[in-house]
Design goal:
homodimer, 342 residues, alpha+beta, 60s Ribosomal Protein L30, Chain: A, Phosphoribosyl-aminoimidazole Synthetase, Chain A, domain 2, 2 domains, 4-stranded mixed sheet, 8 helices, 14 strands
Chain lengths: 342, 342
Amino acid sequence: MSDVILLAHGSGGLLSQELVETIFLPHLGHPDGPLEDAAEIALAPGRVVMTTDGYVVRPLTFPGGDIGTLAVCGTVNDLAMRGARPLYLTAGFILEEGFPLAELDRLVASMARAAADAGVRVVAGDTKVVERGAADGLFITTAGVGVVPEGVRISAAGARPGDVVLLSGSVGDHGLAILAQREGLGFGPAEPGPSPLQSDCAPLHGLVAAMLAAGGASIHALRDPTRGGLATALNELAHASDVTMTIDEAAVPIHDAVRAACDLLGLDPLYAANEGKLIAIAAPEAAEATLAAMRAHPLGAEAAAIGRVHAGREVGRVVVRTPLGTHRLLDALTGEQLPRIC
Amino acid sequence: MSDVILLAHGSGGLLSQELVETIFLPHLGHPDGPLEDAAEIALAPGRVVMTTDGYVVRPLTFPGGDIGTLAVCGTVNDLAMRGARPLYLTAGFILEEGFPLAELDRLVASMARAAADAGVRVVAGDTKVVERGAADGLFITTAGVGVVPEGVRISAAGARPGDVVLLSGSVGDHGLAILAQREGLGFGPAEPGPSPLQSDCAPLHGLVAAMLAAGGASIHALRDPTRGGLATALNELAHASDVTMTIDEAAVPIHDAVRAACDLLGLDPLYAANEGKLIAIAAPEAAEATLAAMRAHPLGAEAAAIGRVHAGREVGRVVVRTPLGTHRLLDALTGEQLPRIC
């Protein structure tokens, strides 16, 4: 038996079946019945939402996570940003010939742990193999389905003038952890120990449920600031809702290690990627209770109110008040800050 | 404006947005509201099924189809093989830096046509870009959701002794069309004109609906013989149902051009891939009516009864009676007949 992926593992024949039986099913769980072309799923009452994301992150494993955790958390979070309870995922794997089976096994195990943490089941999968040089190791594309509870109406278009902009924690952790790992940059501690730059990769549906319990229908919009960072996500929300926002830069939590690395590299942490943070737009009367609920949740301990929503549009969608008291326009990301961040 | 994919098209910033607005939304349709992290879908009553498949076919365009039609039809067909009405797809694109935007536009247009033909909506998408050499042009992963009508219970484990094995048409067309195109083999006609080797890529849900109208609950199992071909799909069905099958090789429709190409290349058409064919296992009393319904449908005009299901297991799962009257064991595909066939 080979210890690396062969083209025949993607043939649909016996080696494909062996891969399913030795790696995918042991980690992701056997279905109750036979392996079908499509899996049956049971949905609770409520509005159903569906999403997909591809994952091409490099390196495959980084401080705080790997492509397996990312492929589960990223799609779970897209569902959670509609206020949904994530329920089912599918996973499509594209593998390069020669990829080590032991590494695949480790990454699928990691995916299974993330799915268990997030309370979702991976109900269908597919594996394709391409020849050496036609892909870079492993790409994963997940799709997800979730159910939005009765009464929850969250939309990127929901922000209204007067609303408060809440942020669940520090920004830039994922982006800088990947960058430091990839480039071998020495941002680690002088003494041996884990790097202070750790990805924040985490499933956010539990935090969202706690926020909805506190803020209810007063939570108007949610978005997770992934690629393009906080700046791009705020611009998307402001654009979709046809409002403007003012953000107080000093209120945005940024870990010291991230700030130091950004200073050194000339990067703006407001554009760096996050994989376990969310922006919430809440009505002013519910902002305090929502913020308290966020801070009471392990994934929102550093949550902060960072700005306000306003009507009209004068110079731009999002304006930042800097710690020096000056103002600058915060546009969506132009160009590419860091390829293959997720 | 660039005419090829740049890394920044995968940044999540302004160029990503431009790609969505100039290519994806014009073809695949604007949502009713803003672009959300997850799309709301409306499901008819019934059991819900979900599936995914990745597409890495090479070349991207081939006689009878392209990766866009394939990425829609393949996932639609996996849903149809449960007897479901396919309703919603998601599409994740992994693009190589430098990929021509005009080609992407053409392939997404083709995807949109296939989705319209199949009556499904592509409700969510994602684009990632990797650097030159880290992927081979374009990979697409689709996921799909469909609803199984009341009373329909189709499963790979449904075949019972005495059942009839039906096949919706000729085998090997997709596999040989790809092979001929890829290798530049001269199987074309002496006179100019389309190659006689054309992929059979097509959505099968309409054929399945016509069969269910005729055969109802007497249709026990369905499978589309894609990678690994007819032989592998029959073995999967026999294994999942714990039965054996005898197949009459002379009854299996094979187009002359496919047979000639297989003879020349030493390939067995029973292992060649199909993208618009299905195997149905039906109770004997309903087999004739089901076959008649298949033949009345444009995608089943060449349908045939090709074998029977039996109890027990002696030497193997699937036995073929050859045109010479001898018998041979038909195993699932071992090794790799042709990489990147879908």
